[in-house]
Amino acid sequence: MSDPFENAMQVVAESAELLGIERTYPGKAILDRLRIPDKIIRFRGSLQRDDGSITVYECYRIQHSDLLGPYKGGIRFHPSVDMSEIMALGLWMTLKTSLVDLPFGGAKGGIAVDPSQLSTAEVERLVRKYTYRLVNDIGPNIDIPAPDMGTGEREMTWIYDEYRKHRDLARAVVTGKPIFIGGSVGRREATGRGLVAVLQEALTDLGWRDCSVAIQGFGKVGAHAALDLHAKGIRVVAVGDVHGAVHDPRGLDIPALAKHAATTGTILGFDGAKPIDDLLGCECDALLPCALGNVITAESAPRIRARLIAEGANGPTTPEADRILAKRGIHILPDILANAGGVIVSYFEWVQNREGFYWEIEEVNEKLIKKITKAYRRVRDFAREKGVSFRHAANSLALEKIVAAMLARGVQ
Ligand code: GLU
To answer: 249-295 pLDDT, tens per residue?
Structure first.
């Protein structure tokens, strides 16, 4: 099994090599300072179950880097969570916030738990325990958590409430909250909307007038991307979730599919669409992995028929698969660019919480599209100029700022 953090660092090291960072700044240990996070917090979360028994979970918060501002990043609840995965996700947050020009560093947290196996009351107790243990390490100017896979507005509300018990009533301690307690309008749809904006920019550059899209994942990212594509008249021909995948070459009726998924809990059994086995290998122009990491591997990459991949998930493509896809001429819009819409609107939420003044949806969406489009164009121009992949271009642009801050701030 490959190690997620080692894989992530290997790619960053290649980008640093392209920039000539270690040669330009000898003796500054730039890569070593990215390899070891600022702070690793790993702890036990003992949960009292509804039946009175106790289950113990491994909990993490990796504060990767605060070079550019307070730590920022989501909290993941998934059985696959481990130290290496959270370290990789933390590193990617450092790169992502730098790339899209947010005044934040990078972090990620998680618990190795399957929340679908817990009752609501159990999840609440676990979130509160997690928050309580981290109460000295988070805060509006220290580290601002947010949702990630397996967590959402409900969990953010409990974090906010628990923090208030031990510290103060600080809306800006966490983002991705429900609107009625200070969440931003448009945050829920932001990752999907940003992903579609980046995809559309790429389609314009490629000169494709028509594009059929397949989406892996129909959760917070995939479903909103699908709805946005549908609203824009771009055909979504296949969608997959944990249970399976459905396909219709004429384009799926996404609002109806979303309704079906909301009532049945899966996209399977949707009227008028054919179930398919291999979503990644299905016939489409663009593939949007919007679920787990490491799904496009050396094994699955040769089957991919799409000519363009936009990474809604974090780390969906292994470095080996990256090389295979590059050889096959398949173009990748990398995660730290393509899925940055979520953290961009998290930033807007944090700003609104601090100002105490709340924006209209038009303002949020306009600012989101402007920021992510600008980042896309910088990545594209860098990639063209240096003749490198978009992934290396995105990493390089992110690294340039991080390294500048590292050198300016001195030894940390
Ligand atoms: N978990 C999301 C990400 O990976 C959002 C993070 C945030 O909003 O802070 O980008």
So the answer is: 999 999 999 999 999 999 999 998 999 999 999 999 999 999 999 99
Q: Whose CA is nearest to atom 9 of ligand 1?
A: 73
Domain 37-172 has CATH 3.30.465.10: no
Q: Is the CB of 90 under 6 A from ligand 1?
A: no
Domain 190-338 in the same topology as domain 37-172: yes
Rounded to the nearest whole angstrom, what is the distance from the C-alpha of residue 382 to the centroid of ligand 1?
25
Closest by CA to 284, choosing from 309, 320, 253, is 309
- Told to judge if 108 belongs to the known catalytic residues of this protein, a careful annotator would answer yes
Q: Is 184 in the pocket of ligand 1 (CB under 6 A)?
A: no
Amino acid residing at 326: A
Q: Which pLDDT value is given to residue 1?
A: 52
Q: Is the dihedral of CA 266, 187, 403, 38 positive or negative?
A: negative
When pLDDT is averaged across residues 368-394 and rounded to a whole number, the result is 98
Task: Give dist(CA 121, CA 275) in Å, integer.
Answer: 35
For a ligand 1 pocket test, name from 184, 346, 351 the mutation site with the most ligand atoms within 8 angstroms of its C-beta: 346
pLDDT value of position 412: 77
CATH architecture label of 190-338: 3-Layer(aba) Sandwich (3.40)
**How many Cβ atoms sit within 10 Å of the Cβ of residue 370?**
12
Residue 107 in tokens: 């972090």
Domain boundaries, the chain: 37-172, 190-338
Specify the amino acid at residue 325: L
Confidence of residue 411 (pLDDT cuts 50, 70, 90): confident
CA distance 17 to 23: 8
Res. 370: pLDDT tops 80 = yes
The answer, as to whether pTM is greater than 0.90, is yes
Whole-number Å distance, alpha carbon 52 to ligand 1 midpoint, is: 34
What is the Å distance from ligand 1's center to 101 Cα? 14
